[in-house]
């Protein structure tokens, strides 16, 4: 799978607006255990209305959530299961290196480090205009939707 539009992403992830934070998957390489996707940051996003008035920036927690969703897409496709929810169990080595503002495009890459018994660990990065904006190691447990 090399490319996914919003309609296919919605079949794989249970997230919906306003919490759907992956606009497109650009590439997914199961052999390399790697996925690349984008999130377009817009003035109209509800979180930016109050973070911060007059100087909107993309909250760091939403940057992490976007990377986690991208990782969830990769894992769901790898195990051929739609609608699985990935619950955060840990976030380590988080670094925010660049402020993300409306008009920016977050290019996210997630690489699987470990996946065993519905537990996964990934490393994610966000780049804006080629510059590293955010990175983190994230672990999560996968569960059936609604459980």
Classified by CATH, the class is Alpha Beta
Number of helices: 3
Tally the structural domains: 1
Q: What is the CATH topology descriptor?
A: Thiol Ester Dehydrase, Chain A
Mean pLDDT score, rounded?
Answer: 90
Can you give the helix content as a percent range?
Answer: 10-25%
Provide the β-strand percentage band: 35-45%
| Model regions low in confidence, pLDDT < 50 over at least 5 residues | none
Spatial gap, N to C terminus: 28 Å
Architecture, according to CATH?
Roll
Task: Give a topology summary.
Elements: H1 6-12, E1 24-29, E2 34-40, H2 46-49, H3 60-78, E3 85-96, E4 105-116, E5 119-128, E6 131-143
Antiparallel strand pairs: 1-2, 2-4, 3-6, 4-5, 5-6
Task: Describe the protein's architecture and organization.
The chain is α+β, with helices and mostly antiparallel strands and 147 residues long. The chain has a single domain (6-143), classed as Thiol Ester Dehydrase, Chain A (Roll). It is 20% helix and 41% strand. The chain is built from three helices and six strands; from the N terminus they run H-E-E-H-H-E-E-E-E. The chain has helices at residues 6-12, 46-49, 60-78; strands at residues 24-29, 34-40, 85-96, 105-116, 119-128, 131-143. The protein has a six-stranded antiparallel beta sheet, covered by helices on one side. A hairpin with a 2-residue loop joins strand 5 (119-128) and strand 6. The longest helix is centred in the middle third of the chain and has 19 residues, at 60-78.
